[in-house]
Amino acid sequence: MSDVTYLKSLLGVHPDFPKKGVTFLDIFPILRDPVAFETLITHLIHHILTTNKDRPEVIVGLDARGFLLGPIIAMRLGAAFVPVRKGGKLPGNVEVVKYEKEYGHDEFEMQAGAIQQGQKCIVIDDLIATGGSASAAGELIKKSGGVTLEYVFIVGLPFLNGHKRLDGPSYWIVEAED
Ligand SMILES: O=P(O)(O)OC[C@H]1O[C@H](OP(=O)(O)OP(=O)(O)O)[C@H](O)[C@@H]1O
Ligand SMILES: Nc1ncnc2[nH]cnc12
């Protein structure tokens, strides 16, 4: 079985969560299986290193499920990890961007000075739906002077066209069907 088939087989599928009409795709069964989790991380590292000719200097993980992947990937690549958090949770000076997502709206923040001018960044999250969250993270990176090499996800919902809103290339391992 390929990595992709294996990881897809473990995804949880929850119709009408968190609200009617949304089918929630749950990555936690992958994290509960240590072999699957290792497969996932190795797949993402291999993808990042073979697709980007520049080595990433910063892995930007999105609140909350991007926090489960970003630090592991950053450590394996010898890169910095920088969190993008929901509004009001980070101390000190922050950059702020408001955004719409598949089932509501929110606010993302990044600590001022977390990314140095010109640093090469990869955005990591569990899933891209409308692309609102990832594009807000891209805006925060730009405001901080960073450059986004790629947006990387476990799951993509390409029928929602979220990837078309991003200012750079994107990749997902598993494609969800409409
Ligand atoms: O492409 P979008 O339409 O923006 O949707 C994708 C985002 O939605 C989910 O996070 P959520 O905001 O639900 O936060 P959580 O991780 O704290 O549950 C998911 O983890 C992505 O970050
Ligand atoms: N369909 C979905 N499943 C899981 N997380 C999501 N975030 C936004 N849309 C989602």
From TrEMBL:
Domain Phosphoribosyltransferase: 36-146
Entry's localization field: Cytoplasm
Keywords: Cytoplasm, Glycosyltransferase, Purine salvage, Transferase
Alphabetical list of SUPFAM superfamilies matching this protein: PRTase-like
GO MF entries: glycosyltransferase activity
Enzyme class: transferase
Protein function: Catalyzes a salvage reaction resulting in the formation of AMP, that is energically less costly than de novo synthesis.
Assigned protein family: Belongs to the purine/pyrimidine phosphoribosyltransferase family.
NCBIfam families per UniProt: PRK02304.1-5 (NF002636)
Protein name from the UniProt record: adenine phosphoribosyltransferase
